[in-house]
Amino acid sequence: MLPLVSLTLFLPLVGAVLILCLPKPATRTVHVIAIITAALTLIGALSMWFQGASGAGFSQVEELQWIPAIGAAYRVGVDGISLPLVLLSAVLFLVAVIYASSLRERPRAYIALVLLLETASIGTFTALDGILFYVFFEVSLVSMYFMIAGWGHEDRQRAALMFFIYTLLGSLPLLLAILGLYLGSPEPTFDMRAWIENPPLEGAAAMWALIAMLITFAVKIPAVPLHTWLPAAHVQAPTVGSVILAGVMLKFGTYGLVRFALQMTPDAFREAGVVVLVLGVVSALYGAFAALAQSDLKRLVAYTSVNHMGYVIVGVAVAAITLDPSVRTVALDGAVLQMFSHGLVTGALFLLVGMIQDRAHTREMGELGGLLKTVPMLGWTFVLAAFASLGLPGLAHFPAEFQIFLATLSASPAAVVVILGIAIIAGTFLKALRETFLGEPRQRWQSMPDLSAREWLAVGPLLVLTVGTGVAPSWVLGIIHRTTSALAL
Amino acid sequence: MSAVLLPIMPPLIAAMALLVLRRGSTALVLGGATLSLGGSLWLLTRVAGGQAETLLLPGLPDMPLRMVAGPLEALLTVAVATVGTFVLIYAVGYMKRESGLCRFYAVMSLFLAAMQALVLSGDWVLLLAAWELIGLCSYLLIGFWFQRPEAADAAGRAFLYTRSADLGLYVAVFMLIGSAGTGEIAASLEAGGSASTAAGLLLLLAAMGKSAQVPLQDWLMRAMAGPTPVSALLHSATLVAAGAILLIRSAPLLTPEVLLVVGLVGGVTTVAAGVIALAERDLKRLLAASTASQYGLMLVAVGAGVPLAALMHLLAHAAIKSTLFLAAGDFQHARGGTGFDQLEGVGRDRPWTFAGFALAALALAGIPPLSGFFSKDAVIAAALSAQGAAWLGPLALAGTLLTGGYMARALCLLWRGSGETRPVAGSAWMTLGVWGLAVPATILGLAFGPIEAVLDLPAVTAGTLAVLLGLLAAACGLGLGWLVPAPRLLGPVYPWARRGLSVGGGLTVWVGRPAMAVARGCERLEGRLYEAVLSLGRAGLFLASAGERTERGLFKIVLCVGRVSLRVATYVRFGDERRIDGLIFALVAAVRALGARARNLQSGLIHHSLAISAVAIAVTLAVLLFASSTSF
Fold first, then answer.
1. Minimum distance, in Å, between the CA of residue A107 and any CA atom of chain B
2. Signed CA dihedral, B124, B128, B131, B134: sign only
3. Lowest mean pLDDT, pick from A238-252, B87-101, B617-631
4. Contact A481 B61 (CB under 8 A)
5. DSSP tally for chain B: helices H, then strands E
6. Distance from CA of B545 to the nearest CA of A (A)
7. What residues does the NADH:quinone oxidoreductase/Mrp antiporter transmembrane domain cover (chain B) (predicted)?
8. Measured between CB atoms, does A442 come within 8 Å of chain B?
9. How far is B163 from chain A (nearest CA, A)?
10. What CA–CA distance (Å, rounded) separates B597 from B585?
11. CB B126 within 8 A of CB B73
12. Which of B467, B465, B346 is nearest to B412 (CA)?
């Protein structure tokens, strides 16, 4: 049988190497190679999807000797938590390279970076070895740094600096935690499956490891107050960078929260659960209010990410706190689906904001206005994405948020105050729609072109999936639920 | 296909077909609505015997979506489909000169489908979904003319008000599912338990948002910025009705305390909104305020513990209010607006429409033998027999009095005076729509007996006292409204009523501004946090530059070494020239190259440093790993 996971994982890297090896390729060639590579990767991810994941433990595991003496090996595999994220990554990277196919400025290096990032992202979600996970996690950060610094907007150096500081401070604690887990294991191994099956640390050691992980993942998610890099990075990042950053890379944090913090130090997490829950509630509400105050459309979308990822934290914290397995399953179902939905919806929103910026060269909502009349297709797709983001039923966020809130009320009723976020986010998007799209069309934007075929191809699939996930969430939830209901903590 | 889906699928399919074809096809939209009406009627005949139809659809894990059609639900689907069909027939005429018809018809069809889904939902998830979807549809319809600032504002306001109140429904649903362990509405209502008081109050909050009860009534008046068929549909059988329907269906859950609150909210609203309607100087806004007032009466009935009375008033009001709005839309086209000064005497110029309007107006006031007489009687009887009759009775009667007052005022305005009437395009469609609904508004009273027999709800006992008091209030209201001008009737309250009885600027001031203040506070905090991290970063850079200075020193030393070697080279020239020279020159070249590399190292660009440190980390890691692998 084909090693599907490894093939999917390294295909983009092969594409990147190919692009770098070609002597002076035409811009067109670069983009064609990129799209073909990303499409093949998506096919790989889809085949993984149809192979599916059995309930307990990991499926489709592939293992190779690496450094047997210390128990580190190349181990990859998936379960119902990582599989949707792998599929999400493959979809988002494909639409990203499609959107990027109009890029003329140093396309070779840019596309190579994007493809490298794709390998790093899929690797982070599929790695089953502590060292391997850390390597992929770091490589993705470095590639994103170059993307912002090299192709960002007006103030990219500052944003890149911000990103750099957080990167440095953020990832070291995780390394310490991984080493701690390694040293605590009865048989020295970096095998994450072993760590999940028998959590190696207890008592104070587990708590310290948890704190270290929480720092790393809180930066990555990002949770208030460690989130300040996010708006800066998003506003300055090129559109594709924003899509990948919000759509895929933020999930490293929440994925780590489930995979490492919840599964490897469950008892410590249960003890500290309330703190994490408060962190999640504060993040969600703070992100919502901060979004409400924005006048820059891209910053606004960035802050709604803080809000939505806050709900994921709440879901995971509830899963850690509760003693009722059925409530835990509902919470985790919601949290994982929320990651998937957020990738689709925020990816679409960042693409659309990028399209507006390409045309108007501004993101200030006050300067735009009446765009629904001027560019109806772009306008209505934005309306759809905005309503998806504010959690309208029939669209992707609703089933996820419903499950998170439902579990929250059962486990810790006070935390249900987080639901205020959905009203504030509704206000935020209504205000944004009112200022940007409704009202009299302006003379200044009269000649603005509507969506091109390239742009449709980029944003269309995300919207289709958003509606599909909202109307029939069971196609994703089925696979998530099988794993979360078999989870023993 | 299960019979439960018959009311929902035709308009849903029509909406999709309209969007796919991108053409405002009259046949499609009317076909969808008519088939929905036929399906509803068929469903009603099937379930009238008492056995409910159910259907399970895949939903969330362990929580399937459930549709249930008992007699009550089937009856409501018929009401929704009837109003929907005639409103759409009317809209064909009304919207004749508009562009964007495809969008209009598609959203109207979707609205109808969503409302039918809400009525038929048998579990909370589906109910919540349909509840929010009708909110979206009303946003899109109120904002149909989105280029007009007032329409754009009104749409946003309507969605935000109802969404905020919907939080009550969300939390109530979570509590009910949590305590009953199932999402099924019927089962969770029976389970009740300790949470039922809190859950009941939260459901009330959600219903207040949708049914525009005080203090959440403001959005309804502004929603008049949308096309008139939209108002007719929103106010009679869909959006606003959803709140009352929710309370009627969840009546078994409501504890006595909650019932009292429901009744008082309804009573206060019926009076307050009635006063606002009486002071209004725009026909459509008058009707909007009247809607809030009539839903107040329904809440009074629910609060009195007789949801059947509320249901009857809901059905009668659906036919009456849609007739009134549709007629108002006809006058609007004839005179170019709905302001009182524009509409004077228009009734004489449009006699057919006016006849429909007048019938409906008298029905709403509660004049026998029109439908509103029976339903209002039931409400008043319920209020007088309730536990809180001392409160609810007078409030219900005052609401009835005010209803007579503002309806007489409207009739008086339309009949007296004169103005210039324009020919109305699509008049035949519009008249058909008006009369299609005016007929049920007139004769629906006949159906109340059979309805009562079919439904399994506590019956109403209408005593003579209730009938007499109701008639007296209605007659007094009509007389006063026809004879006395509103400013004199309301006296000192009039200016306040003109401002919509808002307290200190209304919800915008009490909720909107604090929310924005918090948001701006967060934004300021954001700026501070950002600066703090940035200065931390600068401190790091300073350290790095100190490191760079050290490195520069090293570089100089290397250069020195190079010079020294050059000296050495000159000294040893006399020795074994070939070998030693070669060696020395190679050394010098190597040192030079090293110097050049060192210069590259400190190029000052962060990303170079970052790349190098990443590589360095990787190399160190690899060395460590291999070292340890050999030592084990």
1. 19
2. negative
3. B617-631
4. yes
5. 28, 2
6. 15
7. 121-389
8. no
9. 6
10. 18
11. no
12. B346
Structure confidence at residue B631 (pLDDT):
42
For chain A, give every domain's residue range. 265-489
Q: Which chain A residue's Cα is nearest to B618? A: A135
Q: Cβ of A438 and B606 within 8 Å?
A: no
Which of B12, B1, B226 has its CA nearest to residue B116?
Answer: B12
Confidence (pLDDT) at B578? 59
DSSP assignment letter at B581: I
Question: In terms of CA atoms, which chain A residue is nearest residue B609?
Answer: A164
In this predicted structure, the answer to whether residue B333 has a pLDDT above a threshold of 70 is yes
Q: What digits encode the pLDDT tens for the residues B253-307?
A: 888 888 999 999 999 999 999 999 988 888 999 999 999 999 999 999 999 888 8
* Closest to A144 (Cα-Cα) out of A218, A233, A226: A233
Residue A241, CB-side half-sphere exposure with 13 Å CA sphere: 30
Amino acid type, B568: V
C-alpha pair distances (Å), B536 with each of A165, A229, B527, B539: 9, 13, 14, 5
A393:B132 CB<8 A: yes
Is there a contact between A478 and B61 if contact means CB atoms under 8 Å apart? yes
Residue type, A213: M
**How far does A1 lie from chain B, in Å, by closest CA?**
31
Residues of A in contact with B170 (CB under 8 A): 405, 419, 422
The H-assigned helical ranges of B304-426 are 307-335, 340-343, 346-349, 351-365, 371-385, 389-415
Q: Classify residue B27 by burial, with Cβ atoms within 10 Å: 0-12, 13-18, 19+.
A: exposed
Q: What is the ipTM of this complex?
A: 0.90
Q: How large is the average pLDDT for residues B229-242?
A: 88
Cross-chain residue pair A402–B132, CB shorter than 8 Å = no
The reply to whether residue B171 touches residue A416, judged by beta carbons under 8 angstroms, is yes
Our CA-based measurement puts residue B133 at a distance from the nearest CA of chain A, in whole angstroms, of 7
Q: Do A228 and B129 touch (CB under 8 A)?
A: no
pLDDT at site B604: 47
CB B161 within 8 A of CB A423: no
Cβ of A69 and B628 within 8 Å? yes
B382-397: pLDDT as tens digits: 888 888 888 888 999 9
Do the Cβ atoms of B595 and B555 come closer than 8 Å?
Answer: yes
Q: What is the mean pLDDT of residues A235-241?
A: 89
* Interface touch B526/A294, C-beta < 8 Å: no
